[in-house]
Amino acid sequence: MKLIILDRDGVINQDSDAYIKSADEWQPIPGSIDAIARLCSAGYTVVVATNQSGLGRGLFDLDDLEAIHNKMCELVEAAGGHIAGIYYCPHLPTAGCTCRKPAPGLLDAIAEDFSTSLTGVVFIGDSLKDLQAGVERQCRPILLRTGKGAAYERQLADEANEQVRNAQVYNDLAEAVDNLLKERN
Fold it and tell me: How much of the chain is in helix, strand and coil states, percent to nearest 5?
C-alpha cells in the first residue's frame, strides 16, 4: 500500500487564525482537491491527520466537524479521489495528550488501522509540528508554503532534527503532488 498523510488546514483548505468552524468556512486551496484525486489515481491511499483544538475550545461541535469533513470528502470524491481516513485531535495544546501533533498519536492510530509501517510514508504539512510528528515515526516530511508554511520555512534552518531541517518545501499541495508523481516515473 502506498500511503500518504496530509494535514488539513493550510494544506487542503484555507487556514484561519479564527479556526475553521463550519462547512461554509471550509474553502479548499486552489488545486488541492484535484491533487488528492491525482494521488488516488496513482494508487495512493490518502489519509488526513489534523489538530482540531477548536473542539476543545468550544468553537464548534462534533456535528460541525463532521459537516466540514463530509464537504471535503464529497469534493474529493467528485474529483475522482477518496480520503481513506480522517484522524483528528480535539484537545487543547495544554492537555498533554499523545495525539496532538507534534506528538505522534494520530500517526500511531493510522499505522494500526492500516496495519502498516509509516517508515518512508510521505507526510505533508504546513507547520513544524506536522513535520516533527512525521519524523517521529520515520515519515518523509514535506512542508507546504500555504497556510502557515511560509512562516515556518524560515524556521527550518534552526530545527534540531536534521530530517525536519532538510524537508522538501513546495508552494502548495498541487506542486508537491506533481513532484511526487514525477519521482515515481
Answer: 40, 20, 40
Residues 122, 139: Cα–Cα separation, whole Å: 6
Out of 7, 64, 130, 172, which one is annotated catalytic? Answer: 7
β-strand partners of 85: 47
Coil vs helix vs strand at 67 = helix
Q: How far apart are the first and last CA of the chain?
A: 17
How far apart are alpha carbons 29 and 11 in whole angstroms? 7
Q: Name the grid cell of 148.
A: 502557515
The DSSP output letter for 162 is H
- Cell reading at 136: 517521529
Q: Is 126 known to be catalytic?
A: no
Q: Is residue 7 annotated as part of the catalytic site, yes or no?
A: yes
DSSP state of 29: P
Report how far residue 148's alpha carbon sits from residue 8's, in angstroms, rounded to the nearest whole number. 12
Q: Give the model confidence (pLDDT) of 114-133 as tens digits.
A: 999 999 999 999 999 999 99
Q: Which of 9, 15, 34, 130 is catalytic?
A: 9
Nearest to 81 by CA among 35, 13, 12: 35
Cα–Cα nearest to 146, from 6, 44, 38: 6
Residues 89-123: pLDDT tens digits?
999 999 999 999 999 999 999 999 999 999 999 99
